[in-house]
Specification:
35% helix, 4 helices, alpha+beta, two-stranded antiparallel ribbon, single chain, six-stranded mixed sheet
């Protein structure tokens, strides 16, 4: 019994270590993130949604929980004109950590710049205003494709954690 448990632990460790050094998988995931950024800037919500699994989950910056590709795309389309269209997005993958050869956690820093003046219920934006956020994605490999199964978006509060503070590393 002890021997089979020990073998299982070594097999899991070997699989995890192998997965952490898979440049091909990292490149494929970065490509998905890049395509998402491009789709976001073109307001191509169907293309953006295609990166999610059918049962994918997105928790947006204000805490709304959207489940399923269809619901995610529907909400993005609904918010497009008021809240998403006036914003230009830049994404920067910071870390990809493979838990297994088919599961990865990806941390992406997002910079959003207002393309024009516009108003939301909680804020007035002027052209050039910039917001920053973190995206935490869980990717899974299905049918030889990397898909997002879960995304959490967190705004970076500039009063508490200034993005461009002099002491930032």
């Amino acid at each position: 019994m002890k021997q089979s448990i020990l073998l299982s632990v070594f097999a899991l460790l070997g699989t995890t270590l192998f997965a952490q050094h898979d440049p091909k998988a990292e490149l494929a995931i970065k490509k998905v993130i890049q395509q998402q950024g491009e789709a976001r800037n073109k307001q191509d919500w169907d293309a953006l949604g295609s990166s999610f699994t059918d049962d994918g989950i997105l928790i947006n910056p204000v805490g709304q929980f959207w489940k399923g590709r269809r619901e995610i795309v529907a909400h993005l389309k609904e918010l497009s004109a008021c809240c998403l269209e006036p914003i230009l997005t830049k994404v920067d993958v910071k870390t990809i950590r493979f838990l297994t050869p088919v599961v990865a956690i990806v941390y992406t820093e997002v910079t959003e710049v207002a393309r024009k003046d516009f108003a939301l219920p909680f804020r007035q934006y002027k052209k050039g205003d910039t917001d920053y956020s973190w995206k935490t994605d869980v990717f899974i490999k299905q049918n030889d494709e990397w898909k997002i199964t879960t995304r959490q978006v967190t705004l970076i509060n500039q009063l508490v954690s200034p993005h461009h503070s002099p002491d930032k590393n």
